Amino acid sequence: IMISINDIHNNHVLINDVISIFGWIRSRRDSKSGFSFIDVYDGSCFKTIQAIVKKSIPNYKTEVLKLTIGCSICLTGILILSLGKKQKYEIQVLKIKVLGWIDNPHHYPISAKKHTYEYLREVPHLRSRTNFIGVITRIRNHIFYKLHHFLYKKKYFWIPTPIITSLNSEGAGSMFRVSTLNLNNIPVNHDGTINFKKDFFGKESFLTVSGQLTAESYACSMTKVYTFGPIFRAEHSNTTRHLAEFWMLEIEKAFSDLENIIILSEKIIKYVIKFVLNDCEDDIKFLYNHIDKNIFNRLQKFLSSKIIHINYIDIIKILKKSHQNFSHTVYMGMDLMSEHEKYLVDHYFKSPIIIKNYPKEIKAFYMRLNNDNKTVAAMDLLVPDIGEILGGSQREERQMVLESRLSECNLNKKKYSWYVDLRRYGSVPHSGFGLGFERLLSYITGVKNVRDLIPFPRCVKNALC
Ligand code: 4AD
Ligand code: MG
């Protein structure tokens, strides 16, 4: 049977059992008295397993002494309690088979020394062999699973909303267009460029910037739904918090208002933080040791405190009084820039905050107009070091108001007629939010750049692979 290194460390294997391990070499040390220690990882957990290879093994001289970092091997041996103090278990090797050599160890891009993030982004196909990306991969997986699990337990339905769409629901400045191209007969223009058909079988179409609107249609029948998938934004922003392809969890709930959704957003984040602290002990410890000395403080504080809620109006008052030299001047009605967000969460509050009731002019058309006719029932969750990680609102459920908002925002009423239908036929108050998955990961792990939190980052700078 194939056993993972995690199975061993979780005590699922008996002492003196003969087992086989498949993995890659993290390090090799040879002792003078004629045996070698090999550290093996297989991704299943942070820990490696140490294997002791005696020189009596037939391929000791011909192969074992030539093994380098990154070689893949299968080893069979007896599980014993370690004589050393560094680990509980080790394997006394009976047989070792080399599955793959490193063709030139001097050229292997992943060495034992610490690599910079920038360097690792240049080798996205190999960077998961480092401890750092291994840690991030396991934590990312655990949080993804726990988000689904929370919603499953609360009886939300997962709706896979479309990736190809004709709508620009967030009023994004630019989107990725979907074109069709017959690869068997590529049409070439006079100047040699390819003549793409900029449509999807005759219809103009784009990669989605949000699954919200289609999720709303399901909320208006299934009551509690969510969508969780890749989101595409043709962002030119070369920042540490923007990706052109990222993941978003979007929850949509019928018979629900702004306050309900604020409470839910706080609950779900607390839920995943609790489980990450509980279940990813070794991985979090690595982050504490190498990335962020404040990780335990930050997460425990998040769990034990209630997030501050504050109206947009009061935020502007705070910013005005701050006497900071912002490069964008502060005025009532302005959109918050990252410098303002930073001042608020990093310096003024020094904690996460929820800002609500923004002016309608700076928010999307679908947000519910408040009684003042000026602000909308919107909310954003801002956290230190990152800024906005989550945004949501109560949706406009009144057909007349929605239609006049569509006109005000110069949106094509025909394109949105199906969306207005939801208000025409048995409309209900409903609300929802979108949580940026990589930004949540950034907050939890303390890793600053979202490019290091997604396996293959797509953004202005990085190569595609
Ligand atoms: O604030 P946004 O644009 O909201 C929506 O798309 C709504 N439809 C959500 C909803 O109510 N269902 O995006 C939501 C979140 C942001 O708070 C941010 O965390 C993340 O998505 N986000 C990005 N993350 C990485 N790279 C980008 N370019 C991002 N743009 C937004
Ligand atoms: Mg937003």
From TrEMBL:
| Record-level GO cellular component terms | cytoplasm
Q: Write out the GO MF terms.
A: asparagine-tRNA ligase activity; ATP binding; nucleic acid binding
The EC number(s) this enzyme carries:
6.1.1.22
- InterPro entries, per database record: Aa-tRNA-synt_II, aa-tRNA-synth_II, aa-tRNA-synth_II/BPL/LPL, Asn-tRNA-ligase, Asp/Asn-tRNA-synth_IIb, NA-bd_OB-fold, NA-bd_OB_tRNA
Q: Which reaction does it catalyse?
A: tRNA(Asn) + L-asparagine + ATP = L-asparaginyl-tRNA(Asn) + AMP + diphosphate + H(+)
What keywords are annotated for this sequence in UniProt? Aminoacyl-tRNA synthetase, ATP-binding, Cytoplasm, Ligase, Nucleotide-binding, Protein biosynthesis
One Gene Ontology term from the biological process aspect of the record: asparaginyl-tRNA aminoacylation
Q: Which domain of life is it from?
A: Bacteria
Which parts of the chain span the membrane according to its record?
none
Major localization class: cytoplasm
Q: How does it assemble?
A: Homodimer.
Which family does the UniProt entry place this protein in? Belongs to the class-II aminoacyl-tRNA synthetase family.
Name of the protein this chain belongs to? Asparagine--tRNA ligase
Species source reads Buchnera aphidicola
Coding gene? asnS
